[in-house]
């Protein structure tokens, strides 16, 4: 806590000196920063740009929705324990910091002219652009999300999966697939398998849960999730890559080390492989070795493919996970760096970020995983310095999970 307060103090002091630098008469017009996407990354960036830059920066948030629905805790909506409305955050409070909300989507970017073309036909110029569009789900042959939900972006998909689960009969089979890493929220799919199995054990006795994982093993908290899977009697099949889906028949075909195998389900939950947000792909910013994610300089999150464009949150390709808590952390580093750059300075040279994922494992117990990342000037990467996880799942962690999420939601949207 002492370290955090010291860091907050340092960030505050840096921000104060930037405000002063930005007010120098040499700065002709108020610089404009446009933030695209109002999720954990974008909303935080917009808020902290205004908190630290005050009237010396104009901040426009381009986001098509009037409110944000959090994927965090949404597995508890799937099991009926929480409502979607309790995870829905209006942008009203965020805008009170002096941010302008352009309720629209960015269609194309003119990187040279620094112009955004919006779906409505409107154009917006920028001095610096922060892209935070989250992730996109890859297409799968035969997959119709109106019949087979992914529920990996929260909203109607979450409700659909919840309705399908509640309509299951005792003894039915739930099949879910886990995408190849990297994907949004590493523990999330394993967490879902556990809370669904818990729900079925309590409400639909004799039902089965089958987990088909494209990865070779459980990629995080393996000991905890393996124990939970054994406890719930979940069938876990690694090295299972989805090749096609029959959405009407509710069947999925996977490749298991060269052998095709088809699984039938009453409820099928396919979570496809993922890429950076579509606007990142369309703008030629997905320049990592896979061609799916955006490489950035972790000091400022400036794209290595285009000047004056920063990428934060799920879309970025650093060693940091694709998760909401760390997206909030990246956004603060980025907001500060953007203000420093606009003031003619350089970004802070030793950024530290933090990740935390709480996973409910039943209706009353949870586990957690947390990591601290520090910039390594030699390799120019964010190195994992400390990683800790819950020793054993508990009801105390379940209650701490609600406090942690409440703090994150407030810091991002309020
Ligand atoms: C079941 C589940 C559990 C999770 N649990 C945790 C957890 O415990 N801890 C944790 O840290 N993370 C967790 N996550 C992950 C977390 O939700 C995501 O990593 C996080 O939402 C990413 O934030 P983001 O801002 O990058 O993207 P998003 O939250 O997806 O926001 C992107 C925004 O950009 C907008 N947008 C996209 N394209 C455009 C465009 N062209 N123009 C304008 N706007 C656009 C979208 O409308 C959207 O509002 C969980 C996820 C799931 C699914």
Automatic annotation (TrEMBL):
PROSITE patterns, A to Z: TAT (PS51318)
Gene Ontology molecular function terms on file: oxidoreductase activity
Family annotation (SUPFAM superfamilies): FAD/NAD(P)-binding domain
Domain called FAD/NAD(P)-binding: residue spans: 32-136
One Pfam family, short name: FCSD_central
Keywords of this entry: Signal
Lineage: superkingdom: Bacteria
Signal peptide: 1-28
Residue intervals of the Sulfide dehydrogenase [flavocytochrome c] flavoprotein chain central domain: 158-272
Entry protein name: Cytochrome c
Organism: Thiosulfativibrio zosterae
Name of encoding gene: fccB-2_2
């Amino acid at each position: 806590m002492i370290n955090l307060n010291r860091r907050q103090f340092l960030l505050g002091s840096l921000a104060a000196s930037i405000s002063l630098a930005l007010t120098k008469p040499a700065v002709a017009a108020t610089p404009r920063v446009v933030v695209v996407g109002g999720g954990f990354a974008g909303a935080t960036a917009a808020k902290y740009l205004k908190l630290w830059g005050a009237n010396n920066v104009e901040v426009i948030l381009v986001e098509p929705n009037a409110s944000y629905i959090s994927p965090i805790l949404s597995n508890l909506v799937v099991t009926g324990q929480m409502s979607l409305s309790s995870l829905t955050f209006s942008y009203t409070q965020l805008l009170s910091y002096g941010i302008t909300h352009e309720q629209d989507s960015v269609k194309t970017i003119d990187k040279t002219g620094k112009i955004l073309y919006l779906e409505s036909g409107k154009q917006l110029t920028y001095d610096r652009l922060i892209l935070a569009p989250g992730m996109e789900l890859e297409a799968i042959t035969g997959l119709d999300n109106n019949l087979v939900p992914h529920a990996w972006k929260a909203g109607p998909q979450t409700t659909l999966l919840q309705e399908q689960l509640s309509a299951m009969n005792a003894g039915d089979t739930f099949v879910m697939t886990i995408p190849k890493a990297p994907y949004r929220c590493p523990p999330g799919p394993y967490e879902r398998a556990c809370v669904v199995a818990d729900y079925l054990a309590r409400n639909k006795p004799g039902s089965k849960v089958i987990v088909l994982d494209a990865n070779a093993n459980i990629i995080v908290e393996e000991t905890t999730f393996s124990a939970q899977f054994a406890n719930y009697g979940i069938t876990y099949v690694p090295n299972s890559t989805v090749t096609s889906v029959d959405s009407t028949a509710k069947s999925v075909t996977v490749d298991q080390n060269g052998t095709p195998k088809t699984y039938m389900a009453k409820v099928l939950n396919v979570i496809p492989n993922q890429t950076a947000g579509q606007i990142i792909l369309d703008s030629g910013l997905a320049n990592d070795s896979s061609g799916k994610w955006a490489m950035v300089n972790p000091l400022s999150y400036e794209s290595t493919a285009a000047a004056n464009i920063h990428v934060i949150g799920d879309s970025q390709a650093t060693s940091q996970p694709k998760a909401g808590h760390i997206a909030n952390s990246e956004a603060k580093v980025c907001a500060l760096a953007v203000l420093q750059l606009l003031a003619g300075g350089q970004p802070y040279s030793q950024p530290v970020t933090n990740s935390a994922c709480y996973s409910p494992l039943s209706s009353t117990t949870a586990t957690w995983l947390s990591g601290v990342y520090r910039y390594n000037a030699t390799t120019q990467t964010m190195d994992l310095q400390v990683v800790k996880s819950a020793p054993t799942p508990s009801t105390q962690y379940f209650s701490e999970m609600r406090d942690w999420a409440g703090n994150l939601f407030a810091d991002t949207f309020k």
